[in-house]
Amino acid sequence: MACLDRRDLGLLVLRVGTGAVLAAHGTQKLAGWFGGGGIQGTTAAMEAMGFHPPKHSAVAAGLGEAGGGALLALGLATPAAGAAAAGAMAGAVAVHAPAGFFAQGGGYEYPAFLGFTAAAIGLTGPGRYSVDHATRHVFNQPWMVALAFAGSAVAAAAVVGRRARGQVAVDPDAT
Question: How confident is the prediction along the chain (175 residues), in pLDDT tens digits per residue?
């Protein structure tokens, strides 16, 4: 009997834990599960937070979290899953940034942690105990890492930048 590899076991625990948290958070947005607002409530929240178009933003955030989280938990398409979840968390960080770092004051500590963790898993890979490993890494190729993270970074920058420009336009106290 082969000995369990501690690194692969650690990646499994990290992937499943992080993925489950992200998936639960995303299903609040998409389906209203776990006390969430569903797509209608999330759309209203996105509009109030300055994301436009709000419904597209709600769907993208929900899919990035729920889809990225589920794929991370499975260890399937790990680079794309990590990049999608990290990109969704970049939007959340932008919303919470004015409140500072610490979560107890409404800051960005929690979404930043989830985003960095998802990104680290996407970059590191899923480990041996994963669907990617079982499928001989068909969806976990080195070029996919670069493509997924570049695409996610461009999309997150565009969405966060558009929100920031919209807030400056409506804030009469802005410089």
Answer: 567 899 999 999 999 999 999 999 999 999 999 999 999 999 999 999 999 999 999 999 999 999 999 999 999 999 999 999 999 999 999 999 999 999 999 999 999 999 999 999 999 999 999 999 999 999 999 999 999 999 999 999 999 999 999 887 666 565 5
DSSP the chain: -PPPPHHHHHHHHHHHHHHHHHHHHHHHHHH-GGG--HHHHHHHHHHHTT-SSHHHHHHHHHHHHHHHHHHHHHTSSHHHHHHHHHHHHHHHHHHHGGG-S-GGGT-SHHHHHHHHHHHHHHHH---SSSHHHHTTTTT--HHHHHHHHHHHHHHHHHHHHHHHHHHHHH-TT--
**Does the pTM exceed 0.90?**
yes
